[in-house]
Amino acid sequence: MKRESPGSEIRINRLEALTDGVFAIAMTILVLSLEVPSRSQVTSQSELVQNIMSKGYQFLSYFISFFVIGSIWISTIRRTHILNKTDYKHLWLNMLNLFFVTTIPFTTSLLGDYGEYEFAEVLFHLDILILETIALVQWQYLMNNKDLIREDAIDDSNLIYYRKVYIFHVIVPLLGIAVSVFTPVWSNLVYLVIFFRVFFIRR
Amino acid sequence: MKRESPGSEIRINRLEALTDGVFAIAMTILVLSLEVPSRSQVTSQSELVQNIMSKGYQFLSYFISFFVIGSIWISTIRRTHILNKTDYKHLWLNMLNLFFVTTIPFTTSLLGDYGEYEFAEVLFHLDILILETIALVQWQYLMNNKDLIREDAIDDSNLIYYRKVYIFHVIVPLLGIAVSVFTPVWSNLVYLVIFFRVFFIRR
Amino acid sequence: MKRESPGSEIRINRLEALTDGVFAIAMTILVLSLEVPSRSQVTSQSELVQNIMSKGYQFLSYFISFFVIGSIWISTIRRTHILNKTDYKHLWLNMLNLFFVTTIPFTTSLLGDYGEYEFAEVLFHLDILILETIALVQWQYLMNNKDLIREDAIDDSNLIYYRKVYIFHVIVPLLGIAVSVFTPVWSNLVYLVIFFRVFFIRR
Amino acid sequence: MKRESPGSEIRINRLEALTDGVFAIAMTILVLSLEVPSRSQVTSQSELVQNIMSKGYQFLSYFISFFVIGSIWISTIRRTHILNKTDYKHLWLNMLNLFFVTTIPFTTSLLGDYGEYEFAEVLFHLDILILETIALVQWQYLMNNKDLIREDAIDDSNLIYYRKVYIFHVIVPLLGIAVSVFTPVWSNLVYLVIFFRVFFIRR
Fold first, then answer.
1. Is D76:C109 a contact under the CB 8 Å cutoff?
2. C-alpha closest to that of C122 among C50, C41, C179, C61
3. pLDDT per residue over B26-46, tens digit each?
4. Which of C12, C24, C200 is nearest to C98 (CA)?
5. CB-CB neighbors (< 8 A) of D10 in chain A
6. Residue from A12, A14, A98 whose CB has the most chain B CBs within 10 Å, to mutate
7. What residues are paired with A149 via a beta bridge?
8. What is the ipTM of this complex?
9. B95 close contact with C: CB closer than 8 A
10. What residues form the membrane-spanning segments (chains A, B, C, D) (predicted)?
11. Helix ranges restricted to H, chain C
12. pLDDT at residue D73 tops 50
């Protein structure tokens, strides 16, 4: 039994549009985790200042999640950019990836509210871990199915280099889980190492 | 009286952009059905764990709806891909389709909260049933109006094959309604058969 | 003093992307006007059925608003399609138009909750009236500034025909206001005449 | 150590799609700052009228923020339009810019609810100040890295002219902060000077 190929019907640009849409929305609704205090809670300017200042940790969580989603988006672009066509397995892996992107506003909000509990931290890191693992699996899948890759993008040294990058991105949330055992509250700062990737991985 | 044709003004790519936008948003705001517990409800880590664990069924509903919307999106792409132009009837059928996509976050949320009640399950399946029926009607409409189809996409065996696929997709929510009479809570698992479509429909 | 022309920097396709995004989001978040009842309100299936059934009017308002936004989107496409370039006046008129699109989820929600009050109905119709008036002004602006129009789209009989269509769309919410004086609750049904436009306006 | 260039993988059009998505969502969810009164608060039409009328200042804040975001979007388009390729620094500056766009629905909502407190006003102006400063830095970065600019867009007089525009946009929120010391409530009206930019900056 031959599975029909969706390659001709599912054009890459539609997949890109859906993907960019989901990422844009997930990044933007992160802000909904910051609640404006109701007028019954706040009766003077000093109370307002106090209320907003107490949201510092929620703001940090939101800030970090924004950039984590941003880095995942960049890695998604890289995987789509080399595509020649898609097949059902690749397509559904992509959907699974998008699904876990949509969960980030929830785990971020939980983290912002309950960052002192290891559970909230670990849940957040697990979310990212799953996302990054799917990304690695997708990359490996493309390496194993070179007919899906554009001819001018099949450069083995490049593919191998980026596999290292994907492995690096899987390690970061694992590191986060390890750190959260010792100091839950600040464990999401580990994602800052993403900006220093070039010091860890060389071509 | 001749209806003016919108074919020249309504470019397919705009319709695609609106469609992808609506799908991306509907898929992403599903997450809003998961509520972060307020600090007054949760005072210890074990209470947090318990609260999150109790959301298991809501999470499952959200997960399944995400993939149901995903499969509907793929079927939408297929119908748009073969388009040469659009006319008002086709356009409004498409809008009707999008309308019912936007209702899914509501029926999903209801399902997640009240999954033990047959009513919530049936409402969800009805929502999908309407969506899939509109999709089938749209496909049949295209088959009856071949001037709307791109010349290289008019392949009758292909059109007939996919009509079977559309009929299959109408049957799944009907199956869901039948199952929900016996066991409401798990009736939305029927949508998993979508992933095994190839075993049911051959070219 | 010559105003610099933004024509070369503001590409039409970006304006289209922003426009389609705003419309897609406004259409999709209409669903947030339907609230899932909290578990403390509903303790049996019959209560759930009753609760959902009582949302009938909210659902109708949401349904009608969806299609009103849809029809406004189609009219937006028509105006953008003929564009050769944009200038600041045209661009800000477009932004003003988008602003009032974003208000529709609010006026719709108000209508769904307070449809028995003439005030809620009139506010909704006023919202649409402003939108349709801006659309008409934009069309007239294009007719007066033919350098903004693509050469192959400058067909005066066509431009005049669609001006009639735009005037027709301004009349519908005025009709809605008139009807709401007599029977507030059902005044938003007047928008159904949009589907029968061809019987009123001939080329 | 040479940083790998993302120029070939991160296509500009994907960056545009994400950007337009984030702006469209931020502009549209501003409306969520207007709350529909619950039925327990409102029992007669006159109470509804009163409730809605009391939202006048919230509506004004929402209206002004919409156009401020709109003007930032236009300035974003201008920066992207001249791009030949992107590099990681430029890309992350862009992400930082998008991050602060997503915060505007929060600061707007705060402003709408607590406009009489200088703190809420200053926070809003600070938000815009940061955004406009990042925009200026990005523009200067492009001027310093002309390889990122399309050849036909490298026109020094044009680049210098728009730097003045970017500086102008940094001054406006500073003005807002100054005004808010004297009269907090109306300080966001300073953004109206954006529409009169041409009177301040000449080529």
1. no
2. C179
3. 999 999 999 999 888 899 999
4. C24
5. 74, 77-78, 81
6. A14
7. A83
8. 0.93
9. yes
10. 21-39, 59-79, 91-110, 122-139, 160-179
11. 12-29, 45-53, 56-81, 88-114, 118-144, 156-182, 197-200
12. yes
